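Onboarding guide, step 5: your first structure request.
Type a short instruction followed by the sequence, for example:

Predict the 3D structure of this protein.
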Amino acid sequence: MNLLGTLLLFLFIIGFVECSDDEEKTDPSYHLKMSVSSCEVMQGSTVSINLIAHENTTVDITNPELADALYTWEGREDFWAVIKITGKQKGETGIIITDHETGESATITVKVTEYPMPRLAVKKPEVNLLEMMDFYLYNDDSMPITMGDLSSVCDSIVWSVKGESGTMRVFEQESGENWHKEHLTMGWGHCFRFPGKHVTYLIAWKDNKELFRDQLDVTVTNGKDFLAYNWDDITKNSQAWTSYMDVLKSSPNLITTYGLIDFVPYVETRVFGSDFDESFKILYDYFCELYSQPTYEAPEDKSIFTQYEQLFSEQKKYPGEYPCAIWSTERTNLVLLMLDDNQDGPAYVVYAEPKKQSSITAI
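The system replies with structure tokens like these:
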């Protein structure tokens, strides 16, 4: 072959190679192509979007606080890939897909919808003080409430009552190296110590930020003769002391017992787990809040011993009893006593019984 023929053959080969490269770049199977340009995903849920792209493809999220995205390249011949998008917080963001082989980019618009957070409900919205009030979780759209879904949406959910210092963790999760634990409480009971309208909250937290809040108002009355008791209902002696559920652990830890002697019913109230001086303050403050200031109070009122003898029957005698304060309501007389000769050491107790017809005017 002469020199001219050799040169023509070389140019033909180069032209063929360049043409093949151009064909590969313009082949539709090698171009970025998405199955959709927008999608909707719920908080904590994941959706998958198919696309055609090279392996060397990246995704960038405009607002990473709203969603996560994971790119997975599935095949060589058809260049099939998948993007899995997980919703994190309610809002709208864009996900930019860049194919670094072709230099092409495309954007998927992602709308993250709110997860149907559990709401707060109560079986009976009005109870008497110290009566159990049963709270529970429910979902508006009847979706099941699971720890798996909640753990992907929030860190914890707490129940609280306005004006109370304590809280109850309805849901929480903790993680460490090679371990993870979580718990979910679907229902719980609580006994309110004070009457009135109580505002309760169910609050979800994520990264120390309030994510969701539900409010439920309940009513607690003081309609019985004394605390949780009506005198006509006491027909025998109690076999034990009764404690009252307090999941907030922010109210007086009261315990009560009752009995019937010589046809006269009575109720005793003490404080569980408190020392001598502390129990006096708890009992005194509690009954002052329920019934205002005492009608008679030692040592200011010298007649308190006489009133104690006149207002109360002789059915119940304590060793070394000393009346500290006396309250009188429409149906009940109650006295805060210090017991000096108590077998377990000095103690305070509130003793209550039905009011005599001759008792002082109710406060």
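Each response can be followed by summary notes, for example: Residues 1-25 form one domain.
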